[in-house]
Every structure is written in C-alpha cells, then in structure tokens.
Design brief:
The structure holds two protein chains of two kinds. By secondary structure, chain A is mostly beta strands. Helices cover 0% and strands 51% of the residues of chain A. Chain B is mostly beta strands. Helices cover 0% and strands 45% of the residues of chain B. Chain B contains no helices and nine strands. Chain B is globular, with a radius of gyration of 13 Å. The chains are: A mainly beta, B mainly beta. At the A-B interface, strand 4, strand 5 and strand 10 of A face strand 3, strand 7 and strand 8 of B.
Chain lengths: 119, 108
C-alpha cells in the first residue's frame, strides 16, 4: 500500500513537502517515482529515485525546483516542492516503479494528494 | 526526447472490440505498459510488458507491440470499461518514464 500526504493550498512561490508512506512490500529494493495529473489533463512523470538513493532523475519541468528523497528505514518517499507555480496544481501520485527484468512498469499507485497553487 | 502518441478518443458499442493504439519510434523494441483510469481514481495497471496481465485483470484485456505501434485490445467491451487509458514506456538509461497523452474510451 502507498499513501500520500502533504497536499495543500499554497501560494505561488511557496513550498510544500509531500510524503508517501508505504507498506506490504520490500520498499528498500524498489525504484520509486512521483507522477502528477493536472485537472482534466494526462499523466506526467516527475521524478524517480533508485533503491539506495544514489541515482535521481527529474523531468525538465521540475528539475531545480523539486527534490526527491527517500528513507528506507521508514519505508517512506518524499518530494519537496519549491518555487511553486500555478501550473503545478495537480494530484500527485506516489508510484512504485518495478524495474526488475527491465520492465519499468508502474505497478502500485497511491490514491494521490492534491496540491493547489493559487493566490 | 521520446514521445508516445495516442488517439484522444475511441468509441465502441457494448460487446464489441476496442483497440487503442500507442505510436512511438521503434516502440517494438521497448516494454509497453497500459493503465486504466476511471474518474476520481488512481490509474490501474491493466497490461504490462506488452501483453502480460496483472492478477485480477480480465482476459478481455490484451496487448501487442511491434514496429512503431503498440496496442491495447479490449474484447467484449462492457460499460464498466469506460475510462481513460494511458500507454507508458521506461527509458531505463535515464530512469525516465514516458506516458502517452491518453485515450478516452466511450462505450456507446
């Protein structure tokens, strides 16, 4: 199970920290990702972090503003959002990326947490 | 950057077959995954690695992938299949995930 938290209404230029608490699987061996969906729009991959956190990739749209991290001792994933823009308004999903056997499938999703950026 | 192209919408009558395509350069060399998303819900994986089904997904859902086109086929479509469907690949050399733009399936 994946459960996100931390979504809120924030002003442009502000910051938020999203958390994802996981259970029911060996969190420490999986690459994890965040995906977002703006209202009425499609899915947008944001960032991925490998199992020991030594490799992190970001989408161009958030690189330099968002920071992905994880705590394997707490089975948790985090996304720090800064310099928020109105266009960052979206539901943010925590997702398990199953990279074994070269698959790359996103096989478990949290229910999502809503971030609204507005003045 | 790599791009995936889906038709915005597909319509089908109940009990007929729906085919949703996903176009990409040499997509046949990649593993393609498909997700179903109903309004207000998180996406659900329905086909992975081109044609495999997770447990609990009906056999009516199948996938194929060759050349520059992957496809999700839904046989004997039911009203409950009405949803948005997304294809996805993983660029494992950059750990990047790429989604298609999504296809809205309407059951007439």
């Amino acid at each position: 199970e994946l459960v996100e938290s931390g979504g809120a209404l924030e002003q442009p230029g502000g910051s938020l920290r999203l958390s994802c608490l996981t259970s029911g699987f060996a969190f420490s061996i999986y690459t994890m990702s965040w995906v977002r969906q703006a209202p009425g729009k499609g899915l947008e991959w944001l960032a991925s972090i490998n199992s020991n956190a030594d490799t992190i990739f970001y989408a161009d749209s958030v690189r330099g503003r968002f920071t992905l991290s994880r705590d394997n001792a707490k089975d948790s994933l985090y996304l720090h959002l800064s310099s928020l823009r109105v266009e960052d308004t979206a539901v943010y999903y925590c997702v398990r990326l199953n990279h074994f056997h070269g698959s790359g499938k996103l096989d478990f999703w949290g229910p999502g947490t809503l971030v609204t950026v507005s003045s | 950057s790599y791009a995936l192209t889906q038709p915005p919408s597909v319509s089908v009558a109940p009990r007929q077959t729906a085919r949703i395509t996903c176009g990409g350069s040499d997509i046949g060399s990649k593993n393609v995954h498909w997700y179903q998303q109903k309004p207000g819900q998180a996406p659900v994986l329905v086909v992975y690695d081109d044609s495999a089904r997770p447990s609990g997904i009906p056999e009516r859902f199948s996938g194929s992938n060759s050349g520059n086109t992957a496809a999700l086929t839904i046989s004997r479509v039911e009203a409950g299949d009405e949803a948005d469907y997304y294809c996805q690949v993983w660029q494992n050399n950059h750990d990047h995930v790429v989604f298609g733009g999504g296809t809205k399936l309407t059951v007439l």
